[in-house]
Amino acid sequence: MPDTDRNTQTDSRQTGLLLVPAELRIAPVPSSERYRLNRFYKRNGHKGKAAEDDQAFWLLWQEEVLAGVRFSAFADGCVLRGLWVHRSWRGCGLGSQLLQGCRSYWQSQRCYCFPFSHLEAFYRQHGFVLPDSHTPVECLQQLQRYCQRGEDVLLMQSAPDGE
């Protein structure tokens, strides 16, 4: 877990009770390090895992994973899955930084996501909207499965640049 008392820079910004370090790095997760992302997910309460064919990104501070996201490709675009922030760093804007940092990947195609309903405003800030008539049947069926399990999720999408 990040130690908020050590190695904080003078140009870090204060958010709530935590100082967000200035030297955060966003990068694609190398396939040889996917296990680190999956370990991060598990330690921070996320049930999912990055599959071998997922495109994944992480936000690092001094080589420690503070946030991760993965995208699963399918014929009509991709599905954003597992945007997750370290328990100690939630509410500091790291999820937004990570989505912005990998925007060129997901904005280049039609991207879908299934956020919990209380996160609708967050995803709207990043250009996601409720689905349109072009939504693939697979996404609608997945939404139905989530709802049948009692999960309070939405289906949202982002159109690729130029649409």
Describe this structure in words.
With 163 residues, this protein is an alpha+beta fold. It has one domain (13-158): Aminopeptidase. It has helices spanning 34-43, 94-101, 103-106, 120-125, 137-148, and strands at 13-15, 18-20, 24-28, 55-61, 64-74, 77-85, 111-113, 156-158. The strands form 2 sheets. Strands 3-4-5-6-7-8 form a 6-stranded mixed β-sheet, sandwiched between helices. A hairpin with a 2-residue loop joins strand 1 and strand 2. The longest helix is centred in the C-terminal third of the chain and has 12 residues, at 137-148. The radius of gyration is 16 Å and the shape is globular. Mean pLDDT is 85; it is low at 1-18.
Provide the number of structural domains.
1
Specify the helix fraction band.
Answer: 10-25%
Major sheet size, sense and barrel closure: 6 strands, mixed
Helix/strand class: alpha+beta
Strand order of the largest sheet: 3-4-5-6-7-8
**Level-2 CATH architecture:** 3-Layer(aba) Sandwich
CATH topology: Aminopeptidase
Distance between the termini: 41 Å
Strand content: 25-35%
Number of helices: 5
> Averaged pLDDT, please?
85
Rg over CA atoms, rounded to whole Å, is 16 Å
Described by the principal axes of the CA atoms, the overall outline is globular
CATH class: Alpha Beta
**Element pattern in H and E:** EEEHEEEHHEHHE
